[in-house]
Specification:
Order of helices and strands: HHHHH
Largest sheet: none
Number of strands: 0
Number of domains: 1
Structural class: mainly alpha
Shape: flat
Length: 112
């Protein structure tokens, strides 16, 4: 896999995770929040998830699924970090250990 392909893979994962963050923000809004604000945040989530989907299809056209899917292991790590940074969610020791195990597994699988 070329560095450019890896960059597109990271961008695809980033867009997918951004969509999850937008969805969480929209679903966490109080019931009395303006409907337009909810729809804007929710719509942003739909948009970035759609972009991620089409980027993923472009990657599938050029690479084997078995090569690409290994990097899906990055998603949980990136999602936990994004939730910590953007949603200010609490990080526990178990989450850090889980991320470390996922990272180790990703390295082992991608090295084979």
């Amino acid at each position: 896999m070329t560095p450019l392909a890896f960059l597109f893979l990271l961008i695809t994962e980033s867009f997918s995770i951004a969509g999850q963050i937008f969805f969480k923000r929209a679903m966490s809004m109080p019931d009395e929040a303006p409907r337009a604000k909810f729809l804007g945040v929710f719509g942003a989530g739909i948009f970035v998830k759609a972009v991620a989907f089409f980027l993923w299809l472009g990657l599938l056209k050029r690479f084997n699924l078995s090569q690409l899917y290994v990097f899906e292991g990055l998603a949980p790590i990136m999602l936990v970090l994004a939730a910590w940074i953007f949603l200010r969610e609490k990080m526990t020791l178990n989450l850090w250990l889980g991320m470390l195990l996922i990272s180790g597994g990703l390295v082992l699988v991608s090295a084979s």
